[in-house]
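Recall that a protein's primary structure is simply its ordered list of amino acids. Everything else, from secondary elements to tertiary packing, is in principle encoded there. The following example makes that idea concrete.
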Amino acid sequence: MVKDTKTGEIFRTDHLVEAVIESRLKGDREARGQAALPEAAEDDKKKKKKKVVKSAAVKLEDSVVQEYESMLAQVSNLLTTAADQISTAS
């Protein structure tokens, strides 16, 4: 968990990291003139408060884009593994 020093809000670190990386990738797609990916629809029950991160249209190097995409996959994989371990422990 991390705390926003300005607002006092507390966020899950994995969600904050995801939001920042997704924002940077969105800015890269905008800078390259590509259409933004459609946002996944979520159930209201599953929807959690996420840190809103502004994106700027900045073109990233291809290697940086690949690294960010790899990081997102790793975070997602860690969350899935943790959820599986919790559900099997019950």
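The chain has two helices and two strands. The first helix runs from residue 13 to 31.
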